[in-house]
Amino acid sequence: MTAVLHPPQPRADARPGSGTPALPVSFRGLGRAFGTGPAAHTVLRDVSFDVVPGEVLAILGASGCGKSTLLRAAAGLDAATSGSVAIDGEPVRGVDDRCAFAFQEPRLLPWHTLQANIAIGLPAGVSARDGKAKVARLLELVGLQDFAKHRPREVSGGMAQRASLARALARNPGVLLLDEPFGALDALTRIKMQDLLLEVHRAEPTTVLLVTHDVDEALQLADRIIVLGREDTESSPAGATIVRTLTVPGGRPRDRASAELARMRTSLLASLGVDGH
Amino acid sequence: MASLGDSPFTGTTVADGRAAAAPAAPADAARPASPVTGGHGTPANGWSPAGFLARGWARLLLGLLVPAAVLAAWQLSTAAGLFSVVQLPPPAMVLDAGLDLLRRGQLGLHVAISTQRVLIGFAAGAALGLLFGSLVGLSRVADALLGPTIGALRAVPSLAWVPLLILWMKIGEDSKVTLIMIGAFFPVFTTVSLALRHVDRNLVEAARAFGLKGVKLLTTVQLPAVVPAVFSGLRLALAQAWLFLVAAELIASSMGLGFLLTDSQNNGRTDRLLLAIVLLAVIGKITDALLGLAEKWAVNRWA
Q1: Engineered SS bond to B51: which of A176, B44, B161, B226, CB 3.0-4.6 Å?
Q2: Which of B14, B199, B210 to mutate to test the interface with A (most CBs of A within 10 A)?
Q3: Domain housing A161
Q4: Complex-level ipTM
């Protein structure tokens, strides 16, 4: 646990003044139980860690271990049972406009064009002209400039997911929350989207929390990886907490075939209870 | 009424088809591969029922087949003397009765007053249904407060209202239009309140995550999401409006297609009676088809 609470130094490429003010996030003793009484089911317990501004932090874990719950608590979409989340020192209460969320599914409004869907992400109070310019820039960033007027059902799943990412970026978020954003995509599209995310992060170096169950994805994208796991025995189903924190060496993009990453991959898989072979 | 539950979900099935679109050819995916409806310049290679039906005129012809057969059977059976003229007059006699009424200026009046009653009652009932449906569908408090009462009122058979309405509003336009309004209210209310409760939670959550709430959330996500359901409710309501019209006019009126029905029955004019029935069928179908066109446009726009 002590290692977890050691926040690494802010990354050199986090430039708070350059359009996207990357913000720090801190989780303190976060717990979440669903239901009450004897039927209560603890999903998360005592999760504490810090995310430094501009960092890409991957949250890794088996399905059902509360990864998404953790992220939703940061977004204010879900209220924790105990503990707190603070962004830039201020606790999160309700939907927080310093965050932007990208879900596993694109969740675009089917009756709007991609352009109009991305515009939904714009923060309140942006003038129509500035908003239009921002949406146009984002469409270009995610490579959808030719599909601005298309409806979500007229484009592929990967393109819809890119639009969803652009919608999140339109918020100018201090913290970008990604909940398995590439999980539903095919392998090739996923790699392209990972590269795109790195590109986006270079262009707008915000703080990124990425929930994933894909070890390779975490190794490819993250500065640090947090592994959520459950140490419960039959007598105390205690819920998941942080079982491991790992700093991934090297700048990005990383060589997908690197031997060091392969070693980390095997060890991470072991943490998740899978034989690395 | 069986389509009640299905209707809110038609839009989502279409939207989910998106996942099937090929990533390599998104521009092609944008254009549906179905043949142009009503296009006469596209000769189909090989005959298939689906290709045949895609043409508007072919559909229309096929739809007219059964009415034409009924008409022929009617003509043949009356010509063969299977029925007396009082029981079933031949089609030509019904047509003559219609032309006769038209010449006297009565037919136009009957049709016009009935249509007017239906349209006013339908518009008012649908508007109220939309209002109360939205309230009950979106607010748990309103649901708990109004749901049971509205449900009980819906259980009252339409004809039960007639004596009360006549007592309160006399035998005028008000009582008839009110009865039609009652008939149009419930289908819209039911479909809208149910559909609003089943709006895709994921979409609503995503919108909330981007700071949308209250009226903005309603107009951006919830109302557009239920447009297809609203239209299927409106079509049911329109059918109900014609039903309640005849109920209102049968009992107390001096004009309208329902009056033509009872009046003809009392005078033994089976030809006019059949005329009124045919007119109700045709006008009802036309108004439904017009609403269907609006629905097609709306579903295409909002789903």
Answers
A1: B44
A2: B210
A3: 110-172
A4: 0.82
